[in-house]
Amino acid sequence: MSAANWRNAMNSGAGRAVMMNRGQAAVALPLPGVGGNRGLSLISLISGIGARHVVVLAFVLAYPWFATPFFTFQIGAQSLALGLIALSLTFLGGYGGMVSLAQITVAGIAGYGVAIFGAASAADASISLGWPWWVAVLISIVIATVGAAFIGWLSVRTEGIYTIMITLAVGVAFYYLCLQNYSVFNGFQGFQRVHAPTVLGINLRDPLPFYYLVLFWSLAGYFFVKYLLRAPFGIALQGIRDNPRRMNALGFNVTAHRIAAYAVAGVMAAVGGVLLVWYNGLIGPGSVGTSWIINILIIAVLGGMRHPIGAFLGAIVFVLLQTFAIDMFDRERFNLVIGMVFLIIVLFSPDGLLGWWAGLKSRFLTPRGGVR
Amino acid sequence: MRKGWKWFWTLVIGLPLIVFVIWGLWDNTRLFVVTFLNGMTLASLYFIVAAGFTLVFGLMRNVNLAHGSLYLLGGYVGYLVAHYTGWFVLALAAGFAVAALVGLLMQVSVFRFMPGEDLRQTLVTIALSIIIADLLLWWLGGTVHQADAPELLSGPLRDIPLIKAYSKYRLALLPIGIAIGVVLWLFLNRTRVGMMIRAGVDDRAMLSAAGVNVNVLFAVTFAIGAGLAGLGGVIGAVELSMAPGEDVRLLLASLIVVIIGGMGSVVGAALGASILGLAETYGLAYAPTYSVVFTFVILVLVLAFRPRGFLGRPA
After folding, report:
1. To the nearest whole angstrom, how far is the Cα of A335 from the nearest Cα of chain B?
2. Does A126 map to a domain?
């Protein structure tokens, strides 16, 4: 009943296009406020929360209280910040069908913005404008979002595999611009000592406050994506992913939806970029270079692009690998390790760790001869 | 109306270009002409590398993002062969052969098993590019390797009017690039295999139905495409030098060349390479810290007006 309600409430074409292809995701929950049946949607919202959600939420909230500051900051905060950027790629790639390699570029624009408009080390004072941190952050996020929409406008003119090529070209071009331009981007050195501010007496640079800051924005990003995927916009976007021509025939403006998706993903990537630059304390061409362009893709694919949580899962695995696996091998050979892991995932489990997990579950938990 | 707009945009883009050419020639003729030659010789390197990229893409819809790594591999192999034997021609052959072999292996052992899965193939090429680049770094270290030009072509050519002297090797790149383009054109248009490749670009399923062994054809094309990257690597090892990071540079160049010229078109690759080579060198000569902006503006303009590139056809 709720599904029918939901379907009538919104543009019927969008609902059907999605339902034919991936009904299980789309009809999971009715949209609060759209069907006009608030009580029902609230109940189904609560019943949709399983034990695993509570456990995970309790774990991430309590995490810094039993973890060392190193684990809180280096592993926890870094994973969440990278996960937020990867989430923007999951949203675009997994639900919009547009695998953009320029998400770290958007994050980098925001990061450079914070350094240029705000404060960086004394050596870069000639470039940094030294505005209050909140002005700098807001302007940076706006500029990065506009940049993301522009990248989207460029790449939606073609489809499919062309998107990867164009966004990769844009990302690498931005890297070279940062590298060779000294008057704005300070060339090879970039900006040092870009630190999180002190707000209301709390120094956000400390591991504990910083962890909760990143956690807040990661959760916000996660629930925002979860919400958006059930909102009319998200449903239409998934319809466009599955069949753009049909959606176009139904009267949806495919190009506008796609560009809007880029802009929305751009906001998330920009917030992630600001957090990442505060985490690193510096930004330079290396932060937006090819290795990070590819790392973000690896994180998203590693976790699985079919679900928003995959981005964070992939980020945790990536950061753990980056921190510990190299102790077992040669420190210099991290790229080899991560390349091999990526290759194995892509070859044997295209849906990432989540897909692998789902495969294991269905193999061992369903009775023999059951539907897999 | 539409025609009017076309004229308008031609003027908006063309007029500043003409003004720039006149100003450049009047201001410093030698700099302008040398930059032109530099641009065209760089373009011929870009063409050789990008032609392989576009050939593979055109037939197999496989965006080989490991193309830059194959370039690096070919360059290192060529450097070593030239260093130990002193034969440049042998180095060219070795660079081509090794890269072609690796490309062949990639196609036969990996891509053959995932036909039609564009995205997955591309992800695999990304993984391979990381692995190859890191193995090369492991093997040869991070230092810059610069191969020497063969004796016949080393040193400058003197007594040229206007520009006085110019590197023989770089000058030789122009005919080499043109020769490779002509050979490629003859191969594609005059041989049986070339005919099959062109048929495959147009309609793979039909070609397969006509009794051609598409797997063998794909393997041959991939080997040639990868080999061209390796050949470009040997040439680039002398012209530019080889170091980690050059793979990304040439990958970016290949991407932009095929986006500008149109994917799957060898003539388009020549056109795109000329535009990119000239834009890059003129940018470096006249506005060093913003040179990549010119490349970017060209990319934006082409995507805005001809999303499939100058000579691209709808897929």
Report:
1. 6
2. yes
Beta bridge partners of B156: B167
Nearest chain A Cα to B114, which residue? A347
Together in a domain, A150 and A91: yes
Could you say which residues from 271 to 310 on chain A have a Cβ atom under 8 Å away from some Cβ of chain B?
289-290, 294, 297, 301
Q: Are residues A155 and A294 in the same domain?
A: yes
The reply to whether A181 and A276 lie within a common domain is yes
Residue A60 lies in a domain: no
**A275 min Cα distance to partner chain B (Å):** 27
Q: Are residues A38 and A88 in the same domain?
A: no
ipTM above 0.90, yes or no: no
Q: What angle do CA B162, B165, B168 make, to 5 degrees?
A: 130
Instruction: Provide the domain limits for residue A339.
Output: 331-372
Number of domains in chain A: 3
* Residue in A with minimal Cα distance to B256: A169
Q: Do B289 and A170 touch (CB under 8 A)?
A: no
Q: Are residues A208 and A356 in the same domain?
A: no
**Cβ of A169 and B131 within 8 Å?**
no
Cβ within 8 Å of B, A 61-120: 99
DSSP B166: E
Provide the β-strand partners of residue B145. Answer: B242
- CA A227/CA B220 separation, integer angstroms: 49
Per-residue pLDDT 10s for chain B (315 aa) are: 566 777 887 788 788 888 888 887 787 778 888 888 888 989 999 999 999 888 888 777 778 888 999 999 999 998 888 888 878 888 889 999 999 999 999 888 888 787 777 788 888 888 898 898 888 888 887 777 777 777 777 777 776 776 677 778 888 888 888 998 898 888 888 888 888 888 877 777 888 888 888 888 888 888 999 999 999 998 888 877 788 878 888 888 888 898 888 877 888 889 999 999 998 888 888 877 777 888 888 888 888 777 777 877 655
DSSP annotation of B167 reads E
Rounded to a whole number, what is the distance in Å from the CA of A231 to chain B's nearest CA?
27
Query: Does residue A204 sit within a domain?
Result: yes
Tell me whether residue A27 is in a domain: yes
Q: Could you tell me if A39 and A127 lie in one domain?
A: no
Contacts of B174 (CB under 8 A, 6+ apart): B40, B41, B44
* Residues A95 and A175 both lie in one domain: yes
Q: Cα(A169)–Cα(B17) distance, rounded to whole angstroms?
A: 24
Same domain, A256 and A194: yes
User: Structure tokens of B204?
Assistant: 């793979």
Identify the domain boundary among A291, A306, A321.
A306
To the nearest whole Å, the CA of A346 is away from the closest chain B CA by 7
